[in-house]
Queue: 3 jobs
Job 1
Amino acid sequence: MPAFTSFKLTPWLPLVILGLSLGYATTVLTRLPWWTLLFIAAVWIGVGVKLAWGRPLNARYRRIWPWSLVPLSLAGVYVYLADSFGNVDLGAVFFHLQAGMTEHGGAGKMVSAVVYIAVVAAILWSVTWLSRHDQRWRLAERYFAILLLATNPLLYGLGQRSVALVADDGEWLNRRYVPPLIEEPQQTPNLLIMYLESLERTYGNDIFGDAYADLNVLGEQGLVLEGIRQMDNTGWTMAGMIASQCGVPLMPAGLLHDTQFEPLQKVVPGVDCLGDILAAQGYRLSYLGGASTQFAGKGLFYRGHQFNTVKGKEDFVPDMEDPEYLNSWGLYDDTLYDLTVDEIRRLDEEDNGPWAVVNLNLAGHAPSGFPSQTCQDRQGPFDGQNILYSVECSAHEARMLIERLQREGLLDNTLVVVLSDHLTMRVSVWDQLTALDRDNTLIILGDHIAPQRIRRDATMLDVFPTILEAMGFTLNEHRAGLGASLLSEKPTLVEIHGIEVLNERLREETALQHRLWEGLAPQRRALEENPVTQVTETPADQADEVHIIR
């Protein structure tokens, strides 16, 4: 104990803590290999020893509290989020806080969070000790605090949302929103939508071997749409599903929510989504998910948009033959897909109009996935880390489900849409993925879908009108929501403006946010008293647009 508190020896402990923490944060926020943290720590400790940090010649102890404690804590939160998810999306943080995080599968993240808290506490102690024992640190750390506040992306994002409240044009995206006005189709095919958790098309690159091979085989039978990029507020599961079924990014309710301290009761009630459109045409709608429907508002979204059957982990477990056959999030894919077959059989046997089934699997979930026992019997032992093993499992199980349904004749007059819900978050091949041009999976199969590949510069917003037109619906100018059908010649917003412009406008948007949460937000009297006719463009908007010539 005396050695630990010795004035001569104690500076080593804060120097080591800060050096290793700085090195680790650097490797998290960049693509540098993990071992560079040791080099960074060694340089830091060397400089500290050379300059005698913590034990200057004219040492004067002062019991002060450094200015940088709060900025350092906020920086620790950001590094934790970046380490856990790769890309930090403030929209996801805000939405999950309001929509609910019960029944989440992040038990492993809880351990990681505890470790991070302990490390941040050690960092705060180290900075406090050095500041109290070294007047140079007392002078320098206050400027360091300002630097941390100015460069923290969390605070930068909050600042941008605050600026949006006084932006000159907070209706740029809202003016481009087109309600999904449709003509009743002559035929009403059934619909099966399979969301493959985090299984982006980028995994099809040769550097990942055969991980994506089964989806390539499926793609040879139908339409493969390439170039589906990820804009802001579409990069997590609920956001990806809402973008592809409603044609809008998921802008959290935020301060528009009237009851800030209570969970949301509805999810994007102000726009018509795929479920609303199909229900109006007499479709029977079912959602089946491997995870709980209570997490992130999944159940609220699907029930609120007219799905008749909405089931997740909590609904399936009581009737499972082996209720212990679960992963930390919920059902393995082989179980979920057996239940999907049972649901489609039920709907087909009822013969009471067309049906639409949406399911969401778990096998590809970051960071390492949840391969089913069926896959492990086929692929061999899983090391618990290799995401490519889980990607291969997810792709194979999806292909097997489709082929099984085809053999039973359950996909007659049925459109099948296979897509990723979003790009993956941090996984074992993160460095290789982020070095490539990344895009989402989108494969469409059906009796009237000719095998081909189409590359368009698009986002998940464009999936919504694409599905509707593939089903035979006629859209006004091939548009719905903020999307344009990729089966038409209509240019997408990304093709016209570029994704950077869309993301910038999204950060400044207020009117679209009000539209999404209509009914939960305070009504704006000015708009009610002076209603504005909906337009898709203004003369000023058109002045800088370049039309796509095909």
Job 2
Amino acid sequence: MNLATIDIVIIICYIIITLLFGFYVSKKASKDIKSYFLAGNEIPWYYLGLSNASGMFDISGTMWAVTAMFVYGLKSAWLPWLWPVWNQVFIMVFLAAWLRRSNVMTGAQWITYRFGKNLGARLSHIIVTVFAIISTLGFIAYFFEGIGKFATIFFPWDLSFAIGGVLISSEQSYALIIIAITTIYTLKGGMYSVVGTEVIQFVLMTVSCLVIGYIAFTSVSAEQITNAVPGNWKNLFFGMELDLDWTGYIDSVNAKIEEDGFSLFGFLFMMMIFKGIFASLAGPVPSYDMQRILSTKNEVEASKMSGLTIIVLSIPRYLMITGFAILGLVYLGPELQEAGSGIDFETILPLAIQRFIPVGLKGLLLAGLLAAFMGTFAAFINAAPAYLVNDIYKKYIKPNASNKTYIRFSYLSSILIVIIGLLFGFFASSINTLTLWLTSALYGGYAAANMLKWIWWRFNSYGYFGGMLAGLIAATIVPTLFTDTSDIYLFPLILVISFLGCILGVYLGKPDDIKVLKNFYKTTKPWGFWKPVIKELQKDDPTFTPNEDFRKDVLNCIIGVVWQMTFVLAPIYLIIKEYYYLSIVLVLMLITSLILKRTWYDKIKQIKN
């Protein structure tokens, strides 16, 4: 498809502005590594919240979500629990405050704060750095797969070429160009560049989402939607079986459901709950989400930032997701039925943009989606080099080097990580495959050790190292042994293997230094099994009180998950014109908002920093 001149101009202008901004803030960012990776802890929480929301609004994820809405209907609202998306609720309620109190720069540096400096702590320090790099490489491959599919539908030029006998497709060429541009502005501006450009990107994406929602709402009637989908498509709830038969509508969707492995939806839901609890208690993984929490000014702002992310992300995003899904169902459905098998459903989003968005608005939307990709990608390539620079190079190789040396090494680290991630991307089969591996297998290896580190005093550095090592090995090997099983169903096995590694490490190694544990608990104050450490602290200070907020935090998390879900469902019910259910969701939104204001927000405002 040939874009109109005005659309191309809008996209080019956005790219130029982004690059100029990166160079503009480069002097401020290069002052020292704290300025480069955490922006000196001086960015207000609301900018970080908008940046965090923008960073989660990526093209690959949006393409996946549009496909899920198209195929599974209202039940697709549950599928983001695969990540699990409600880890943001746990972070908002208590984990953001716990993490921010550490005053460290990276998740690996946090290991020293938690476990000390013995051999086990050094091993743990290295293994969490390895995890951060592996997860970043996986996400780069995920982004590469999505942006390539997206770009080839819109840009008319054939950029395929051969190098060394290997054919590089147009899809891959476009992805390489966009990733190169993103890498340049992120290298120059660090966290300042990431946050600044993402705030601009968030505004751009919100406008685009509202436009798409309006077009879908005014172009498609409730009757057209009903005629285009199976009877159970509009039903949010489910039994053990999915009970969604596309025969006579778009027959090939049935094969897509079978391929995804989601036919036993009730069992899938139980797996998502099981996985979600462990993964959420583990806290944010060492990537852009953790980096933003550590970039806030204090624990109160860290908590408020996470709450804002939930609000501003879901409503505009699901206006767009639902809008594109129903436009595709109503107007592309008959064509897809005629096309038969072999349809790549992950291209529904770009096909819908190509077909339904008018000139001018198309350029704005494409710039917005491009911005979403660039923002998320930039966040990852800002976060990962922090581990190589601060936790490997500075700690073990050149502890007394100049700030200029550290910044230059961060440039080199970013480029190296991007190149290796792109090599992984060349061999990725689909966005859905990468999504399931990242959310289920890889994070299955992360959850056990990172949950226990918060709640159990006896969990030592050797336990952390053993659990993470066992988890990483299991996440790599187990999926290759069960190739016909969806990765989400392998999560319990990978988690058990990781737990075994944790327990072996704990009981083969000695307890960590009590001074380190006392400092950690006194500063962080998590709830959990800390009685021996609390007793030692009370010997020094009889007035010391432990954290007794477990029941309150659990209740707030349950209410918070319902609250978060209302922000997802409200735009969906609005676009598909189910006003009765919309009214129920809005009442739930109001009730849960009032409860959380009293039980969470008013409480954190009382904390003095």
Job 3
Amino acid sequence: MTTIRLTAAQAMMRWLSVQLTPEGDRFIEGVWAIFGHGNVAGIGEALEGMGDALPTWRGQNEQTMAHAAIAYAKAKQRRRAMAVTSSIGPGATNMVTAAALAHVNRLPVLLIPGDVFANRGPDPVLQQIEDFDDGTVSANDCFRPVSRYFDRISRPEHLLTALPRAMRVMTDPANCGPVVLAFCQDVQAEGFDWPEVFFAPTVWHIRRPEPDARELGEVVAALKAAKAPVIVAGGGVLYSGAEAALAAFAAKHGIAVVETQAGKGAVDWEDPLNFGSPGVCGSDCANRVCAEADLVLGIGTRFQDFTTGSRTLFANPARWLISVNLAGYDAAKHGAMPLVCDAKVALERIGEGLGEHRFEGPDPGLREAWFAATGKVMAAPEAGNALPSDAQVIGAVQRHAGPQTLVMCAAGTMPGALQVLWRSSKGGYHMEYGFSCMGYEIAGALGIAMAEPEREVICFVGDGSYMMANSELATAAMMGIRFTVVLTDNRGYGCINRLQQGTGGVPFNNLYAQSRIVNPPALDFVAHAGSMGAFAVKAADIAALEAELAAARERAGPSVIVIDTEAETGAGIGGGWWDVAVPEVGRTEKLAQARKDYEVNVGRQQVGG
């Protein structure tokens, strides 16, 4: 057997560089890296030697580097991914939040934190977490509950099994998620004689499982017996590449489609059977169709509480729930009739079973009335409105948008407002709402722009999220990556301030004006963004915002447009109930009434089915 003498770190990077997609691209496009003790000597040397065969990018924060990598994978519909390496200690634990984000959203990312010495020579090493009762524990054990696959590389030859396992997880549509390979720092530098065949290029195909015949038969029979079905399209539609199949299926059989946050953009908003989004951030027409449906066909969705209105939305007492999902765990949620298979395959097989069977479909007037109503709240304000609403900001971006525009966000007011209001072209929407992680936005926009450079990426971010994580704006400027940030400044956490009051509370500790501060904030976001290399400007009103959006389209790097907004309104339209527990005991009549309303809504929940 022919062997090659390499360090374990060199072997890892060489192996990753030859793991290919069916199209011949690297599955791991490159590696984000912040070096420190624990990865600079071993992994750092190995990456430097790879050059363009496995590019390395330098970020500003381990968490946001990982967010960029995750956004890249989401934009590539899980067909390609990135790796992220950190030092041990805080560098590693900074990535735990990102791992949780990838886990919840079922997205592939390879995290390679440095780890303690396997030989335990330096013990404890700098930044080592010590468990008094378990000598095998390190800080990286924090990753275990938020990893799809976790391994600790404490011998070079561990890579011979760990790396293929990592790739199998990241390319498994049912088990896809974050992989953590905690890499002991002395092992990274240790030489080993590797079988040459280990580095042969490997092509990874993403499987499309067929449905069980019995399950398929039950689903077709249930559909044929229904009178008013609705399709709930989730992210699985996009990851399956089933967008065209879904639109054709809905058109042939006359079934309305509603889209979750992860599924939005699967069907063009102008499709007459696209009734918007369901649930807490839902459109009026979608929520009505869902409430009246006698069969709900979920495709690639987890039926998360925002989608189901905390289990109050699908209110027809005679309704059936069907869940098409690759993961049996997800397919069985809410007592659904499961169909465990690929989304595109499911649409084809169900279509074959239905034949020419067609439903009457919902009243198209519901859809028309909804768009008329949203058009009013998104319209440009009359002269003199110094503080526009979030809906009016969205309207300005909507009027500017073209077929290549992609809007993205993650947390705060804008995700809900965008789901309700944004009229997405096919593939023009990217929302991280499984974990709704503040700080994802700017790093995510960077990852999307790297994945889809032909797109006009527009990142919505509030002042609160911007304050949490903005440093990858400097990375984008240094790399010359183009995207536009629309930064809405309502001087605090406006979204949670409204939730606080909506659940009977008084305004407290969310807006700066209601917080325990000595000096009112005078945050100059334009100066801050400009200092990091972005083009930055303050838009005085909606008309100025539209002009600046047009100008940003022509620039080469990142642009930041700041606009002041009012904090009270939010989307101002649509929506539904969300289960946020209201205190049983309190000091105000407002809180007592909120508790009474809460108990009424809890009584509407269809828990257990």
